[in-house]
Amino acid sequence: MKTLAYAAQGPATPLAPFTIDRREPGANDVQIDILFCGICHSDLHTARNEWRNTTYPCIPGHEIVGRVSKVGPAVRNFKAGDTVGVGCLVDSCRSCASCKSGLEQFCETGMTFTYNSADKHTGKMTYGGYSSRVVVDEKFVLRVSEKQNLAAVAPLLCAGITTYSPLNTWKVGKGQKVGIVGLGGLGHMGVKIANAMGAEVALFTTSPNKAEDARRLGAHEVIISKVEEDMALHTGSFDFILNTVAASHDLNPFLNLLKRDGTLCLVGVPEHPHPSPDVGNLIMKRRRLVGSLIGGIKETQEMLDFCAERNIVSDIEIIPVQKINEAYERMLRSDVKYRFVIDMSSLK
Ligand code: NAP
Ligand code: ZN
Ligand code: ZN
After folding, report:
1. Ligand sitting nearest the alpha carbon of 164
2. N or C terminus: which one in the chain shows less Cβ crowding within 10 Å?
3. How far does residue 168's CA lie from ligand 3's centre (Å)?
């Protein structure tokens, strides 16, 4: 099926209109007309080959909300007209220990990401949500509540699950002091979700002008991470810190803020690695430095339901697809409030 899209043709070329071929839906497939697609910083890292693994043409986009337009004959859970979501994964082996535990993001023989991943069906690469429609196996399609603002739900499919999963895995909740580092797409969802889980939430930011927003979004405290004296006031006081920063930086100032047995979880994947933190900062208080990758399909559905029950969505700026390149530049300047979402009806 000929499908309109926006593609990067190389690391330094702006994204531009491009036509791709999508497969016709097979027995287990759901064909989705894309309504909205969020812009994740991973899209920018990939479009510009910052992780040095991009195959061109590259069509990013893994925060997809759309409407089912057709289903294959064996599809059980979806029908034409349903409102659905697709996140970062579109397939996995389904038989390894991780897949059997609902942790498809850690598939041991290789998961298929929504874009820039080897496509089992076409032998080419997968193409993401900066396009007018997508065809996905029903096991990787999520149910989205009709009652919410659909454009604002789209970012939950990556930013939502990437912050929910570690907060859930390390059992963040009442009585705990939790830090979120960086108020961007991931960070603002982290603030909302950690607050909804009952934690006392502090936001660490490099942008003092975001302090008021952070409080509105659910932070009980805002700490300007560049001000050493402010950081020092919190030494040894945090149970858990989730670091969403998209650029390389020193992790020691954050490790210092953890209690004994506290955890610093990294989810940002900068182009250049962070300098190795001081080992003493880990061993003296048995602190943990961990990482987390999106979330499995079951947990993603659980997160969508958790957010729907509490009316949690992303704070978004809607843009037409023609503004993608401008949005990337603003994202690089930390100038997003707090996620760009493409209105796909602008793709004609
Ligand atoms: P984003 O919207 O650009 O937000 C990143 C935030 O980090 C910025 O808003 C800024 O917040 C802070 N920041 C940026 N540059 C900084 C610097 N030089 N020093 C200190 N702080 C800086 O990006 P995002 O979409 O949330 O993604 C964040 C990172 O997570 C990216 O690397 C992305 O690839 C990665 N990611 C990982 C996963 C996963 O599964 N692990 C999933 C999705 C995304 P302040 O202005 O508040 O300081
Ligand atoms: Zn993402
Ligand atoms: Zn597997």
Report:
1. 1
2. C
3. 22
What pLDDT sits at residue 316?
Answer: 98
Residue 317 near residue 337 (C-beta atoms within 8 A): yes
- Select from 3.40.50.720, 3.40.50.2300, 3.40.50.1000, 1.10.230.10 the CATH code of 160-291: 3.40.50.720
Angle CA(224)–CA(178)–CA(289) in degrees, nearest 5? 90
For domain 2-158+312-346, is the CATH number 3.90.180.10?
yes
Tokens representing 136?
């996905």
Other CB atoms within 10 A of residue 285 CB: 16
Domain with CATH 3.90.180.10 in the chain: 2-158+312-346
At 320, phi and psi to the nearest 5? -75, 155
The pLDDT, as a whole number, for residue 318 is 98
* Residue 297: its H or E element: helix 297-310
Ligand 1 pocket residue status of 247, Cβ below 6 Å? yes
Tokens found for residue 65: 């909300």
Q: Is the CB of 265 under 6 A from ligand 1?
A: no
Element (H, E) at 31: strand 29-38
Question: Could you tell me if the CB of 315 is within 6 A of ligand 1?
Answer: no
Amino acid at 300: T
Angle at 44 between CA 336 and CA 327, to 5 degrees: 35
* Residue 179: predicted pLDDT: 98
SS3 label, residue 124: coil
Ordered mean pLDDT values, 10 residues apiece, the chain (348 residues) = 98 98 97 98 98 98 98 98 98 98 97 97 96 98 96 98 98 98 98 98 98 98 97 98 97 98 97 95 97 98 98 98 98 95 97
Tokens at 101, concatenated: 């535990």
Q: Is ligand 1 within 6 A of the CB of residue 184?
A: yes
